[in-house]
Design brief:
Layout (H helix, E strand, L loop, with lengths): L2 E6 L1 H5 L12 E2 L2 E2 H4 L2 H6 L1 H16 L5 H8 L5 E6 L5 H5 L4 E3 L2 E8 L19 E3 L17 E5 L10 H13 L3 E5 L8 H7 L5 E6 L9 E4 L2 H12 L1
This protein binds 2'-O-acetyl adenosine-5-diphosphoribose (OAD) and zinc ion.
Length: 241
């Protein structure tokens, strides 16, 4: 079975009504990003950060996948499909995609504020706890870690925290996709920013590769499909099935 690797960003969810990051005014859902989704903001005002995520949690609860997500799920009839997404929603899973790796965490997950997976630039060594669980409800002040008693927080990567790109297995997939006539699809992410830019060059030797975006950046040897994910992904999937 051939492998398809799909790397996605905010633009994939946009057609389901979830706003992209680099919108106008540097605002993110009408808040200044640095006030609500930042490692330092967390320690300054946890209540504000939690309120912001509660709003998003509730908004995402009723959001449904669109034709583009469903088209990607359909690929699994014929291919092994691996998703790496920067999105924290579960729209790919809702559409039926079975292997989805969330680089920036998940909205419906919670973890200890001292979780060991949090990497901050100042090298704070107090991050040693390993508590993480499904979040069925928005997190509130006073929801405490059952292991160490600290406050729980959204299991997402905040600004000023490092994104842990799984280089080893991505390298394996590059090989698998490259030697097996596989496909790489990059959808709805600004490819000039890490890690998208890095992945795009990492896959440069793969024969069949596509960028789907309303405003696609020119990248050599990629086929650019200019348009919305909702419109372009079903067309692309038709040609692959
Ligand atoms: P961006 O908001 O930076 O980029 C969204 C991309 O989607 C742009 O290239 C748009 O042209 C494109 N786009 C917008 N609407 C679209 C549509 N309907 N169909 C297809 N494409 C569309 O979002 P990301 O690249 O996901 O990180 O941003 C990456 C990360 O930056 C985010 O995950 C976030 C932020 O810092 C963290 O929160 C850690
Ligand atoms: Zn803990």
């Amino acid at each position: 079975m051939k492998t398809i690797l799909v790397f996605s960003g905010a633009g994939l969810s946009a057609d389901s009504g979830i706003q992209t990051f680099r919108g106008k005014d540097g605002l993110w859902e009408d808040h200044r990003v640095e006030d609500v989704a930042d490692y330092n903001a967390w320690w300054k005002n946890k209540e504000l950060v939690l309120r912001f995520y509660e709003e998003r949690f509730n908004k995402y609860k009723d959001t449904k996948p669109h034709e583009g997500h469903c088209a990607l799920a359909k690929l699994e009839q014929k291919y092994k499909v691996v998703h790496i997404t920067q999105n924290i929603d579960n729209l790919l899973e809702q559409a039926g995609c079975t292997e989805v790796h969330h680089l920036h965490g998940k909205m419906r997950s919670k973890k200890c504020e001292w979780h060991k997976d949090i990497t901050v630039l100042d090298g704070d060594t107090r991050h040693i706890c390993d508590y993480r669980d499904v979040a069925k409800e928005p997190i509130k002040i006073g929801d405490l870690c059952p292991k160490c008693g600290s406050q729980l927080r959204p299991d997402v990567v905040f600004f000023n925290e490092a994104v842990d790109l799984p280089y080893d297995w991505i390298a394996e997939y590059v090989k698998e996709v490259k030697y097996n006539d596989g496909v790489f699809i990059c959808v709805g992410t600004s490819v000039q920013v890490y890690p998208a830019g890095y992945l795009v060059s990492f896959f440069s030797q793969v024969p069949r590769k596509y960028i789907v975006d309303t405003n696609p950046q020119r990248v050599s040897n990629y086929t650019l499909l200019k348009g919305t994910a909702k419109e372009k992904l079903p067309e692309l999937v038709e040609t692959l099935l």
